[in-house]
Each structure stands twice: as structure tokens, then as C-alpha cells.
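Here comes my example:
=====
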Amino acid sequence: MKLPVIRTNNDYALFFLRLALAVVIFPHGAQKLLGWFGGYGFTGTMIYFTQTREMPWLVGILVILIEFFVPLALLAGLATRFCSAALAGVMTGIILTTFRTHFFMDWFGTQHTEGYEYFLLTIGMSVALVLAGPGRLSLDARLSQQRN
């Protein structure tokens, strides 16, 4: 019996979707947790989240952990549906709390904030993975095969 949560097909398109999403999100998580790529690291990010943005500390920690560990899980194709849903939740929260006045990025410095097109694209990719699963070359597929 296949578990619906880990079932998938051998589609390469889903593998590339997973790969692209992981590669784009990982640097954001590494900035927040480790301070890589010009980020502020865990302490600086938590100060920003809790003091400047006035977010509850639990939400701040969850955002940091999701943005760092979900891309790693997506690369491996592990718990893909769950991880993609968590990422879609984070991106939806960002749109609803931060970037809702402009659709496009602020290419020319004329807007007072960035747009939400990046976050919307990430939500779309995540929802596709929630619905379809991880595709080829995933630990979820391997686990699904072992259960049969």
C-alpha cells in the first residue's frame, strides 16, 4: 500500500521543479540561520523579526528553520509534500504581512517596497509539489517503493 504523502511518479519535471525551488530558497535560509550571503545570522535575524517586525519569537524561529531546512529536504526529495506546504505557508505569510502593495520587484528604486511576484511564484511551485509529489530521484519515491 502506498502512503499518499510519499507517493509520486518518475517524472523528471517534478525533480527539476524541486531542484529549482531548493536552489532559490536555500540562500535565503542560509542568510537567516548562518549569516551566509551577506545575512545577519540567527541572532540578527531574530532581533529583526521580534523587535523591528514585532513577530512572535516562535514564528521567527519557524521561518528561519523552514527557509534553511526545507530546501535541503527538497533536494533529497524527503517529506516533499509537507516541506512544500510549510514553505507555501511562509511565503503566504510574507505576502500578507509585508509585500502587498506592489506586484513587481523594485527594479528602479521608485517603489517604497518590493513586490510580491517572487513570493507568489514560490507559492505556485510549492503547491505543485504538494499536489504532485517529488518526482524522480527522491527519497520519498524510494520509501514508497520499499513499502510495496
Observations:
- The chain has a mean pLDDT of 90.
